[in-house]
Write a structure and sequence with these properties.
By secondary structure, the protein is of the alpha/beta class. It is built from five helices and four strands; from the N terminus they run βαβαβαβαα.
Length: about 120
Amino acid sequence: MTVYGIVIASHVAEIAEGTKKLVEQVASNVPVTIAGGLPDDGIGTSIETIQSAIEKNPADEILAFYDIGSAKMNLEVCCELVDKKVQIFDCPIVEGTYSAAALAEVGVSIDEIQKQLQALVIK
């Protein structure tokens, strides 16, 4: 198993599920957990769901991706609630997650993953 795990936080369950499905095609050894939508199948994110996705991921270090602002805020709160190291990436959710997973799959360091994702960073 790779050193890193991925958490996808999206306001819509299908976006998180679809991104995970895509990532698993290129990085089957990278553990991916998702937090998509609200527990009542509504649109949104919750701290509890994101925290659970982080804690359920078997990796000790998490690369986190999100779709829009409040998902990022909830991820930031979760960083304070969990014992794992969580790196949040400010880049498009699908492209960023896919690229990071492909790099993690082949053992690229976190520093190199960060450098490679800089081209995708939302400014």
